[in-house]
Amino acid sequence: MNQKTDNLFTFSWDKLLETAIDSGSKPLGYTCSYVPPVLLSAGSLFPYRVNAKNVNGTEVADIYLSQVTCSYTRSVLEYVMDDQLEFLQGWVFAAGCDHLRRLYDNLQYLISPDFCHIIDVPHKSGPDAIDWYEQELRSFSRSLSEYFKVDMSEPAISQKIYEYNTLMNSLTEISNYRKIDSPPFSGAEFQKLMTAVWTLPLEVAQKIVKNIKQNLDKRSCPINFRARVLIISSVIDHYEWIECIENVGALVVADRFCTGAIPGIEAYPETENPFHDIAAHTLQTNACPRMMDTYERRIDLILETIHTYQVDGVIIAPMKFCDIWGVESSQLMNLFKDKGIPVLRLEREYRLSGEGQLYTRVQAFLEQMKL
């Protein structure tokens, strides 16, 4: 590899974000995959998946949120109280879980943002649920249009779906490289790319993705690895956590978590009813264990991913105190053991910590796999 391809996944995210905002783009913060990012892309708006990667602790947030609330919500509230997210022009929540609802309540109480909307989300994905959720999205779009004076008409949304799908299709082409025997990038590098995609305007992310696509064939795998692993989790914002796993020799080739690619980069359908398309896609594609009627689909997706990406072992990494993932991870552990698939459960906090223990656990896992 030459210097250009060595630095292919190295870009100044902070500078790109600052430049976009200075040029007139307005970031809207969202905290859950049940907020369709394509709806936050109207006019000069762009979706910003809220992270608190550099939080040092949650001492202030712990005053307002119980310490048995997941550390993602507490970290975000800490970031808010520390004025680290003042650049956001508004907030959009989904009532995906009780912890996110408490974050919304506290945000309203403590800083009362000028624009702060919560979308109610059904727990099922059938026709009635889709119709109901479609009306929720239409109501949200009206609020967005009235406050920001942006075009939320069906033709405008259809155009945004097309632009969004163009980016997602390009990302899929990059992600597909992970299926080959020796991918030209690491899992940590890919997660850097996903962070940029979820937090920058479409046109900025598209330039990054285009450059990477054009140069991937000149690259070779940047790490020596002993095994290919799939990570299953909720929110992972720290590529360094993935880097720790890969430094032991476990290449992360698939990422079934909220801020990853599977199934997050699947394109929307494109028909004459964009709001219905978005509602159906969001409810039926997201693989969150909060949904009561998609367990078999979630399992099928995971097993298909294991086969397609040549996965040797699975790491399940639920966040501590996440109720819905706590239940799901136990079921998945039993499933993988029954099928003879090597599996490791790593309960974690949102903030990067315990790297030494992480190294030890993953190294022992690789030894048990006897590859």
How are the SSEs placed, and which strands pair?
Blueprint: H1 3-6, H2 13-22, E1 26-30, E2 45-49, H3 61-64, H4 71-81, E3 90-94, H5 98-110, E4 116-119, H6 127-148, H7 154-175, H8 187-199, H9 202-215, E5 227-232, H10 239-247, E6 250-256, H11 274-285, H12 295-308, E7 313-316, H13 323-338, E8 343-345, H14 355-369
Parallel strand pairs: 1-2, 1-3, 3-4, 5-6, 5-7, 7-8
Helix pairs in contact: 4-5, 6-11, 7-9, 8-10, 10-14
Structural features, described:
The chain contains 14 helices and 8 strands. The chain has helices spanning 3-6, 13-22, 61-64, 71-81, 98-110, 127-148, 154-175, 187-199, 202-215, 239-247, 274-285, 295-308, 323-338, 355-369; strands at residues 26-30, 45-49, 90-94, 116-119, 227-232, 250-256, 313-316, 343-345. With 371 residues, it is of the alpha/beta class. Helix 4 packs parallel to helix 5, helix 8 (187-199) runs antiparallel to helix 10 (239-247) and helix 10 (239-247) crosses helix 14. Strand 5 (227-232), helix 10 and strand 6 (250-256) form a beta-alpha-beta unit. The longest helix is centred in the middle third of the chain and has 22 residues, at 127-148. It has a domain at 23-150: 3-Layer(aba) Sandwich (Rossmann fold), CATH 3.40.50.11890. The strands form 2 sheets. The chain has a 4-stranded parallel beta sheet, sandwiched between helices. A 4-stranded parallel beta sheet has the order 6-5-7-8, sandwiched between helices. Helix content is 48%, strand content 11%. The radius of gyration is 20 Å and the shape is globular.
Notable characteristics:
single chain, 371 residues, alpha/beta, Rossmann fold, four-stranded parallel beta sheet, 48% helix
